[in-house]
Design goal:
- The protein is mainly alpha-helical and 202 residues long.
- The protein has one domain.
- The radius of gyration is 24 Å and the shape is elongated.
- It starts with a helix and ends in a 28-residue tail after the last helix.
- 26% of the residues are buried.
Amino acid sequence: MGLDTAKILGIIGVILEIIGGFFQGVGSIVGLVLVIIAVYMVSKETNRSDIFNNYIIYFVLAIVAIGVFFVGVLSTILAMGIGRAGFFTPGMGGGADLLKIIGAILVWLVIAWIVLIIGTYFLMKSYSGIAEALNHGTFRLAGKLYFFGAILLVILIGAILIIAGVIVELIAWATMPTELPKKPGEAPPPTTGEAGMGEPVI
């Protein structure tokens, strides 16, 4: 297994993430796992541990962001007693409670948004590392689209940038080289039939 396997896993992983995103299935989870494995393999092949470490930080923070939002919203609703009589009746104080819940939800949403921005920053660093290690700038572009998309997620353009990031990410994996780039001054490997050093040609 090497970069060629990582490439295949990355392609399949992103495709499953896209399909899972449309149909809310387990495909997105399986796809994410495959991408994590692909990133790990690239990190190992390029001897760049920062690539995988940054991706794991992104993954953890993305989970935290989702958890913060949903747990925060649920706890707020339960704490305010949304099910009690008169909750939605302004004359019985329900209108004031509703405004408090909306305000609290917005606070949790902002916290989750900030955590997501931090997470996508590490995703950008991870993909920038792959771009540097493999001399494949498409990964860098994908990371930037995710990061700036997260920043602008409060407006429509943010969602558009993230969608573009997913597409560019798929292109990056599909066009990823399966051999490490040669370092400056590195001699090319001997070709078939080429005589070894100090050996006479027969």
